[in-house]
């Protein structure tokens, strides 16, 4: 009798020990061949390169330098800003689209004209939606129409009246082909019924040099690029190409206020990675740029640059890009600039 009871006790102990051991493994086998292991969280372990597809000194480059100043507060690895201008932004974007999708080569400037406008005008060497992955939107910059301070023109009306009376084209200094400033100048010409001839450059600062030299009748730029020249009385702002006046330049009338039925939202500035970049890497950087956008030092730098902070995460930015692309496509057709 005692022997049977002892065997029952031993059997119970074996069951209890087995259950405890199983519980220590989470109540299931240590590995489940039917269920893939979760991807480890990404954390960079070497320097990160951010490619700016515009020349140094323009609004996109200024934004990149602002990011660089606070980067080390939020990322364990340093960042290197590399300017790769050319082709109106195409060269730099194409370079990143063909980079290894490992999270160490990104681009800032995604959403500018080479991504949203240029594809409607010509065949591209990369697809901004298939070859690049949105990470985050950082800002949108308005476009300001300018003339040299010594110009005879004091308003858009005076330029339009002169062009019609003299039957001459109005030359315009723009940052890059199919960029926000270029589109605005073409839109002015179409809407006002005059010929506007844009002169493209490799970036905003180069376009400003041409305008200051009096080589074109008018030009344009984003507030960050033009405020120093305005303060130094080298240029005069005569129009804003957004639906409402820019808070940074409240005394400058919009184009619509001057009878020109045209406006756009300006130049979009966002981050992107090469196609094939794993979701966990995109998530890491989307969160990183949210932290940067909320950083007090970054906010101050952006305020000093007269650049608004308009953050969107990767999902929101992807939806925005699609809508913006479609909107710009309609605008290009309205202006008669679409591919033939």
Explain this structure.
42% of the residues are buried. The longest helix is centred in the N-terminal third of the chain and has 23 residues. The protein folds into two domains: 161 residues, Bordetella uptake gene, domain 1 (D-Maltodextrin-Binding Protein, domain 2), CATH 3.40.190; 115 residues, Periplasmic binding protein-like II (D-Maltodextrin-Binding Protein, domain 2). It is built from twelve helices and ten strands. The chain has a five-stranded mixed sheet with strand order 2-1-3-10-4, sandwiched between helices. Helix 2 runs antiparallel to helix 11. With 340 residues, it is of the alpha/beta class. About 6% of the residues have low confidence.
Give the gist of this structure.
The protein has 340 residues and is an alpha/beta fold.
Layout of secondary structure:
Blueprint: H1 2-24, E1 48-52, H2 59-71, E2 79-83, H3 90-97, E3 105-110, H4 113-116, H5 118-121, E4 132-141, E5 144-148, H6 156-166, E6 170-174, H7 180-192, E7 196-200, H8 204-212, E8 218-221, H9 223-231, E9 235-240, E10 267-274, H10 279-294, H11 296-304, H12 314-334
Fold-level CATH name of the largest domain: D-Maltodextrin-Binding Protein, domain 2
Query: Assembly state here?
Result: single chain
- Tell me the CATH superfamily of the largest domain: Bordetella uptake gene, domain 1
Radius of gyration: 27 Å
Poorly predicted residue ranges: 13-31
Number of strands: 10
Distance between the termini: 100 Å
Counting DSSP H or I runs of 4 or more residues, the number of helices is: 12
Order of SSEs: HEHEHEHHEEHEHEHEHEEHHH
CATH class of the largest domain equals: Alpha Beta
Sheet-strand content, in percent, reads: 15-25%
């Amino acid at each position: 009798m005692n022997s049977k009871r002892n065997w029952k006790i031993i059997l119970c102990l074996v069951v209890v020990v087995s259950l405890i051991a199983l519980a220590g493994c989470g109540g299931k086998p240590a590995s489940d061949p039917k269920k893939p292991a979760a991807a480890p969280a990404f954390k960079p372990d070497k320097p990160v390169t951010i490619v700016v597809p515009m020349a140094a000194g323009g609004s996109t480059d200024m934004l990149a330098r602002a990011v660089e100043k606070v980067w080390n507060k939020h990322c364990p690895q340093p960042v290197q800003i590399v300017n790769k201008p050319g082709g109106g932004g195409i060269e730099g974007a194409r370079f990143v689209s063909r980079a290894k999708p490992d999270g160490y080569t990104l681009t800032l400037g995604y959403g500018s004209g080479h991504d949203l406008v240029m594809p409607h005008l010509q065949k591209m060497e990369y697809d901004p939606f298939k070859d690049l992955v949105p990470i985050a939107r950082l800002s949108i910059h308005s476009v300001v129409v300018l003339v040299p301070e010594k110009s005879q023109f004091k308003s858009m009306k005076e330029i339009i009246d002169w062009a019609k009376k003299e039957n001459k084209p109005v030359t315009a200094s723009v940052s890059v082909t199919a960029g926000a400033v270029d589109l605005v100048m073409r839109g002015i010409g179409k809407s006002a019924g005059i010929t506007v001839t844009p002169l493209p450059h490799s970036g905003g600062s180069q376009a400003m040099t041409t305008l200051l030299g009096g080589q074109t009748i008018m030009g344009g730029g984003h507030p960050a690029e033009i405020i120093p020249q305005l303060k130094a009385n080298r240029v005069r702002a005569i129009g804003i190409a957004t639906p409402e006046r820019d808070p940074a330049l409240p005394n400058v009338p919009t184009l619509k206020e001057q009878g020109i039925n045209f406006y756009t939202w300006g130049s979009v500035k966002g981050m992107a990675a090469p196609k094939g970049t794993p979701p966990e890497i995109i998530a890491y950087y989307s969160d990183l740029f949210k932290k940067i956008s909320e950083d007090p030092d970054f906010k101050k730098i952006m305020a000093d640059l007269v650049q608004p902070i308009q953050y969107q995460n990767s999902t929101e930015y992807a939806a925005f890009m699609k809508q913006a692309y479609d909107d710009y496509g309609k605008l290009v057709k309205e202006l008669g600039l679409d591919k033939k």
